[in-house]
Amino acid sequence: MSAESNPVRLGLVANLGQFSLLVVVNALVGGLLGQERILTAFGEDVFGITSYTTALVFIAVFGAAKAATNFFAGSLCDRYGRKPVLIAGWLVAIPVPLMLMFAPDWSWVIAANVLLGINQGLTWSTTVIMKIDLAGPNRRGLAMGLNEAAGYVAVAATSMATGWLAAEYGWQPGAFSLGAAYVAIALGLSVFAVRETAGHVDLEAESHIGGEHGLSTRQVLARTSLTDPTLSAVSQAGLVNNLNDGLAWGLLPILFAADGLSVADIGLIAAIYPAVWGFGQLATGLVSDRLGRKQFIVWGMLVQAVGLAAFAAADGFTAWVSAAVILGVGTAMVYPILLAAIGDTVHPTWRARAVGVYRLWRDAGFAIGALAAGLLADNYGIPTAITVVAALTAASGIVVALRMKETLRR
Fold it and tell me: Residues in domain Major facilitator superfamily (MFS) profile (predicted)?
């Protein structure tokens, strides 16, 4: 079909088919991650790992690999286009579920998580960038809410399903069989159905107001990380958000297991937090398009701090479910809005790289959080580790309140 008969247009309605397809692809990205949310219980049950620091190494290497890949994903998208980067991410993922299904020791799990980090950095970053491309400036919050909701609802569903599969059929190979199906479906969709969105960037750039055109990658890195008050505030909030998520991912299943919860119950609680987070983003992203970004980020970080403090003080299934809901609400208030704020602030010609830098810092939080939480838990206990991270999360919200400017153009 010619360009004249199929013109490039911006907006969710104008690009509904491709946008919906990318929502499905991102759900599969999240699903592949979801099978890992109770891996610390897997390590303890199958390989007898009792050191918190050792158990959380798999999250640290995942976070480091994903953070580094995020940075390069933005530049690769600008240089080669979005679709080739998306396909490359799914090719990297092919061995991941197989390595978990047949791992003879914990080193295989760590190696699988290096590949998973690369996969997530390439695929999740690219689906974010492509949705921002398609949506244009007017519904950016809604677009990011839909994107992140799809990913984290899939994380929740697959976490619960993995716990059920492990309880019914054992950890290997049954618990990780869903991941192999996710990779096959997503690779097929990415190759045969997803279309390139670079043309939408060119269209938006023609009418974009504000932001400097043509920055180098070094300049983008400096601005997003440090010199621009709004972008740097957003980046540190993303880092702290995933720092506390790394703690929740790694330590909470161990805390629940120590209290005698079954694998199925652990999977259920591990699913509630990303489920509330995922569905909540459908509302927060949309409302932020009307009310603005900053207040959601500030209050969301503070609500997350309350949820973490509740985990430290709580005991028993019901109390932990309540804490998971609070933490999920706080994360939903923050997660898509941070991405929308980046898209609001930067010029379309360097937006992909800015998103990559932001996601570099955000996912570095997984590595920092996993290692810090493991060391604190080994030396002072899990409740102390959770309390320290809760305090850091509250401090991050205060930094946003002091440094960030509202980014939504009314």
Answer: 10-408
Domains of the chain by start residue, with CATH: 16-403 (1.20.1250.20)
What is the secondary structure of 69-116 as a DSSP string?
Answer: HHHHHHHHHHHH-HHHHHHHHHHHHTHHHHHHHT-SSHHHHHHHHHHH
User: Tokens for 408?
Assistant: 């939504």
| pLDDT tens column, 174-228 | 788 888 999 999 999 999 999 988 777 666 666 655 556 667 888 989 999 999 9
Give the C-alpha separation, 338 to 242, whole Å.
12
How many residues comprise the chain? 410
* Secondary structure of residue 148 in the 3-state scheme: helix
CA 4 to mean position of chain CA atoms: 37
| Token representation of residue 194 | 């997803």
pTM: 0.77
What confidence score (pLDDT) does residue 350 get? 84
